[in-house]
Amino acid sequence: MRPRTLDEVLGQDDILGPGKPLREAIERDLLQSIIFWGPPGSGKTTLARIIADMTEAQFIPFSAVLSGIKEIKDVMAAAQARRRADGRRTIVFVDEIHRFNKAQQDAFLPRVEAGDVVLIGATTENPSFEVNAALLSRSKVFVLRPLGREHIETILRRAVADPERGLGASRLAVTDEAIAAMAGFANGDARVALNLLEFSAAAAPVDPASGARGIDLPQIEHSIQRRALLYDKSGEEHYNLISALHKSMRNSDPDAAVYWVARMLEAGEDPLYIARRLIRFASEDVGNADPQALAVAVAAKDAAHFIGMPEGNTALAQAAIYLATAPKSNAVYTAYEAAATDAHRQVAEPVPLHLRNAPTPLMKALDYGKGYQYAHEERDAVADMECLPPSLAGRKYYQPTDRGFEKEIKRRLEGWEKIKEARRKPRGS
Predict the structure, then answer these.
(1) For 301-347, what is each residue's pLDDT tens digit?
(2) Phi, psi of 294 (to 5 degrees)
(3) Would 343 be classed as within a structural domain?
(4) Domains identified in the chain, total number
(5) For residue 399, how far is the Cα from the chain centroid?
(6) Which end of the chain has the lower number of beta carbons within 10 A, N or C?
(7) Same domain, yes or no, for 183 and 266?
(8) Assigned domain for 339 exists
(9) 209: domain CATH number?
(10) How far apart are CA 79 and CA 57, in angstroms?
(11) Residues of the chain with confidence (pLDDT) below 70
(12) Nearest-angstrom CA–CA distance, 91 and 362
């Protein structure tokens, strides 16, 4: 059921619609090096095969899983010879190009630059990370979208009706509910949908009277069992999902937060990775607006580690919901960033003498600790004493907000500053 023409390809009208540059280049056989980036089952290999049928160039398919650098160099040499002999170009299709290492990818460069080879790469991974910069700069990236449910349903109906390439000759009847269920299960992957249809058709009971077979919703639900969620713990989707969780909690959306936690856990993410991100969020985005947030996040990590999965999933969900609904402040984060910037840029001045301990007579003789004011001996336990190096005296890194507990912290700091200012004024002034 693989599409044989551009008109049969579904769900990619934004790059293959009439008048679109990619379609024009394919139909006029003027294609330059391109990379198809999209999820499984969205049509990357299909497009390459259609191009192979439509081009007058020599078309050579490669598998990044099976091919090595020797095969690449042999093909590149043959492409150069072919171009010199009769001017004919070579189109090299590399499936799963992200699996090629840098040396293998570099082997294409000379012939791509010379115009002997047009490279078509297909990848499920972000080319920005998986394709080396030199090759990427010489290629146009086209993004293929996951197929919509309506596109999957159309593909399934074609397969049921087509007597040549599909199941049309087998007198198979499939209910609309079953078609919809298969399309939903496929999650945008046409290959998954067709495999499920083929499996269900093989297992469908035969009507003794008519000899026809039928597939209904209960049969599909029995075949589906449980869907494996699309997720690569080392790929871009890993970072996309954790970013979605972080931004949902920051935006105080507990429903989205618990959904993204569930998406990752159900796909097999390491629960302690999620716990680490929750702990980071507790300090970065909640901070002292709710000091309990960090304790909740650490407790969730301990719980998930102690009882394991799947029982630990609710501890992580509890923490995510707590963090999403907590008052927000990034004042701790910005304070650290500002202090770290000064630590790198400013001269690393010695610790002021009055802040140093003096455990030996020599250190006391060198004025270690001289002038130190013990806060507990001061009224209100606040001393008018500078604790930063001289060049940074008076610098304010921590700027508490008016949200949550930081409102109380802000009130305290302002009160202590007034006490210090009063002590600095000469008596009688």
Answers:
(1) 999 999 988 899 999 999 999 999 999 999 999 999 999 999 988 88
(2) -65, -40
(3) no
(4) 4
(5) 32
(6) C
(7) no
(8) no
(9) 1.10.8.60
(10) 10
(11) 64-67, 225-236, 426-429
(12) 80
Crossing angle of the two packed helices 149-161 and 176-186, in degrees rounded to 10: 130
Query: Quick one: 247 and 204 in the same domain?
Result: no
Q: Which residues contact 184 (CB under 8 A, 6 or more apart)?
A: 149
How far apart (Å, rounded) are the C-alpha atoms in residues 295 and 274?
16
Please provide the size of the chain in residues: 429
Helical pair 313-325 and 236-250, crossing angle rounded to 10 deg: 50
Which residues are registered as beta bridge partners of 100? none
Q: What pLDDT digit, counting tens, does each position of 221-236 carry?
A: 877 765 555 555 556 6
**Is 416 part of any domain?**
yes
Distance CA 287, CA 398 (A): 11
Q: What share of the chain is helix, strand, coil (3-state, %, to 5)?
A: 55, 10, 35
The per-residue pLDDT of the chain, averaged, comes to: 87
In the numeric block, the tokens 């009882």 are attached to 307
Residue 48 and residue 130 in one domain: yes
Full domain range(s) for residue 369 = 350-424
Q: What is the distance between the alpha carbons of residues 37 and 145, in angstroms, rounded to a whole number? A: 9
Question: 292, 325, 358: which is the final residue of a domain?
Answer: 325
Nearest CA-CA partner of 277 in 316, 235, 236, 220: 316
Per-residue confidence (pLDDT) for residue 73, from 0 to 100: 80
* Per-residue DSSP letter, 206: B
Same domain? 196 vs 130 = no
Say what the pLDDT of residue 347 is.
Answer: 81
Q: Which of 224, 251, 273 is the last residue of a domain?
A: 224
Structure tokens given for 136: 């990427």
Q: Does the residue 50 lie in any domain?
A: yes
How much is the pLDDT for 24? 92
